């Protein structure tokens, strides 16, 4: 299954990133939750550092475009196969930078993709 880094992970059940981590795990995907606050989600520790996990297939974004520039180098250096821009995270600049490095980008909802088998 695809190893997914959830950027903007939260231990708050009201957040979509919380639901995404749970759904990804339920669908059998390895998940690396990364956020700005320590906590746990779906039995996984939320990393507040920038883990250098290899073999990241997908980064799914739950960080608004105004806060993404601080993450650009980290995201691009991980060299994922794709980046999913969930609703509210769309960012033309990051999409262009990713595509220049051969990283596929999608403006989509991870939760919907999982629910319809298109992840």
TrEMBL record:
Domain of life: Bacteria
CoA-binding domain ranges (all copies): 2-114
Pfam families, alphabetized: CoA_binding_2
Protein name, per record: CoA-binding protein
């Amino acid at each position: 299954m695809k190893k997914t880094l959830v950027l903007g992970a939260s231990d708050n059940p009201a957040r979509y990133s919380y639901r995404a981590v749970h759904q990804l795990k339920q669908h059998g995907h390895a998940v690396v939750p990364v956020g700005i606050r320590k906590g746990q989600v779906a039995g996984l520790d939320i990393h507040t550092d920038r883990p250098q996990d290899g073999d990241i297939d997908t980064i799914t974004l739950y960080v608004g475009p105004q806060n993404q520039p601080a993450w650009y180098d980290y995201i691009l250096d991980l060299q994922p196969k794709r980046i999913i821009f969930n609703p509210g995270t769309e960012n033309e600049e990051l999409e262009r930078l990713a595509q220049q490095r051969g990283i596929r980008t999608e403006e989509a909802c991870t939760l919907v993709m999982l629910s319809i088998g298109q992840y």
